[in-house]
Amino acid sequence: MARILRGEIRWADLNLVRGHEQAGERPVLVLSHDVFNERSGTVIAVALTSQEPRAGYPLTLELKAAKLPKRSWVKISQIRTLSTERIGKRLGRASDEELATVLDGLLEIAG
Fold this sequence. Notes:
alpha+beta, 2 helices, SH3 type barrels, six-stranded antiparallel beta sheet
């Protein structure tokens, strides 16, 4: 498999889930650094959705730079550590500004 890089948007298999977790095969935004992804066998990522959210930033952020096939929002509160075996094809890449905003939102939620 090709290297999984920070800022990439990739397909991921999020099953099996519980409660309010995002489920199914869906895009995720990779947050973890490249060296972590390569050496750990896992990635830290947040789920994307094409359903317009009711909550705004810091819980969600619309991605505009990624040129995705559908209008998409990052669900910042839906952070997951995933095995690289769950990660599939690359769909696009978030801009550096979007990635920084997502990370700031995560810090705001986590306090």
